[in-house]
Amino acid sequence: MENPKRENRQSVANIVLENPILFKELVAITFEVDTKVSIKAAWVLEWFCTHHHLEWMLPHLDEFSEKISTLKFDSAIRPCAKICEHLATSYHVKTTNEIKENLTPQQIDNIIATGFDWLITPQKIAVRAYTMHTLYLFGLERDWIHPELKHLIETKIIHESKGTKARGKQIINLIEKHLK
Question: What's the pTM?
Answer without folding.
Answer: 0.93
